[in-house]
């Protein structure tokens, strides 16, 4: 019988990219961004954008949105990242993205 290799991670630990977003480390987020799938649901059921929005890291949320992260992914609770936003500044950047006012960068 042929075995099929899964591309799903069986790890129970969040990725270094997710941890950088969780800790507010923009420099590390930038250095890891091109090496990861930034829209990946982590083992805890959230994306990096969810955690950055939850902790109110405006610069990271803005960077992720500018670089094409999807604001439309539901976490394990059925909530999008903008619904996890911790403050009005974060909610505003999501609104700007919805209104097409966020310039996309694909560098």
From TrEMBL:
UniProt cross-references to SMART domains, sorted A to Z: ANK (SM00248)
InterPro entries in alphabetical order: Ankyrin_rpt (IPR002110), Ankyrin_rpt-contain_sf (IPR036770)
The ranges of the ANK repeats are: 44-76
- What is the species listed in this Swiss-Prot or TrEMBL entry? Didymodactylos carnosus
Domain of life of the source: Eukaryota
Keywords recorded for this protein, A-Z: ANK repeat, Repeat
Protein name per the record: Ankyrin repeat protein
